[in-house]
Write a structure and sequence with these properties.
Elements lengths: L2 E3 L10 H10 L16 E11 L6 H15 L2 H8 L6 E8 L6 E9 L2 H13 L10 H13 L4 E11 L10 H10 L3 E7 L12 H9 L7 E5 L5 H14 L17
Parallel strand pairs: 2-3, 2-5, 5-6, 6-7
Antiparallel strand pairs: 1-7, 3-4
Helix pairs in contact: 1-5, 2-4, 2-8, 3-8, 5-6
InterPro entries: DUF1194 (IPR010607), vWFA_dom_sf (IPR036465)
Pfam family, one: DUF1194
Length: about 260
């Protein structure tokens, strides 16, 4: 499994219009059993899973992604990372993205702090109907996720957007770098999971999608990109990524001239 550190430079003085657009994108209907405002409580992290649901993904491939999320959140190591936190619980939401300005909140905020609540989230994700998407408007997904975190009825110590996809941003109304900068200005970390369907290398010797996500998607303190070789590898990669995000850990840096794989 590969991961790649972000440039640690934090971007400031962003136009308020960016955040206004992000808030406007948040007018979507959610599903599941969302947290209520009166239930606001302290959590270690507010985590948005923003998953690629674009038209290029077959029903079978998309099912693998959802099953990977369910497997990750109920994994013993992930649950240990959750329960060993200061507050022993996280807030988590699930977003699907694809078409321009069409990112959808599929599962609104839910608290996870034990096996039962983790299973509740997993069942809700598995039972949700797939949203209708097209293209790869990744920037709009980040904008929606930023607004969603702003509306989280909890008090998170950290705020993380976890984006996964197999293509770069190409149709967003708010381009990914602008959406990323708005999120970072709101003290949100954006990490990415790059699904390497073709394994092509970029000019720097890393997979081209990793280089794109480094430059245009991830941001915030200790942001990183992880890789999955394909959607069958999604569950493993997401599990390891969530452990780091929930525990607030940074991966160990790999040698700069090679890509780590699951067997390393």
């Amino acid at each position: 499994m590969g991961w790649y550190r972000a440039d640690q430079k934090i971007r400031y003085a962003l136009p308020m219009l960016m955040l206004a657009v992000a808030a406007a994108l948040a007018v979507m209907s959610g599903h599941g059993s969302p947290l209520r405002a009166q239930e606001a409580t302290a959590v270690d992290v507010a985590l948005v899973l923003a998953v690629d649901a674009s038209g290029s993904i077959s029903p079978a491939e998309f099912q693998l992604q959802k099953e990977g999320i369910a497997a990750a959140i109920t994994n013993d190591e992930v649950l240990a990372a959750i329960t060993e936190g200061r507050h022993g619980r996280i807030a988590i939401a699930y977003v699907e993205w694809g078409g321009p300005a069409n990112a959808q909140i599929v599962v609104d905020w839910m608290l996870v702090g034990d096996t039962a609540t983790a299973e509740d989230f997993a069942v809700t994700v598995l039972g949700a109907e797939r949203s209708s998407q097209s293209y790869n408007a990744l920037g709009d997904a980040i904008a929606l996720s930023t607004a969603l975190i702003a509306q989280c009825p909890c008090r998170p110590t950290r705020r993380v957007i976890d984006v996964s996809g197999d293509n770069p941003d190409n149709r967003s109304q708010m381009p990914a770098p602008l959406a990323r900068d708005a999120a970072v200005a709101a003290r949100i970390t954006i990490n990415a999971l790059a699904i390497l369907n073709d394994g092509g290398l970029g000019t720097g010797g890393q997979p081209w999608l990793v280089e794109n996500y480094q430059a245009n998607v991830i941001g915030g303190f200790a942001a990183f990109v992880m890789t999955a070789t394909d959607r069958a590898d999604f569950a493993r990669a997401l599990r390891q990524k969530m452990i780091l995000e929930i525990a607030g850990l940074e991966p160990d840096a790999p040698p700069a001239d090679r890509v780590q794989t699951a067997g390393d």
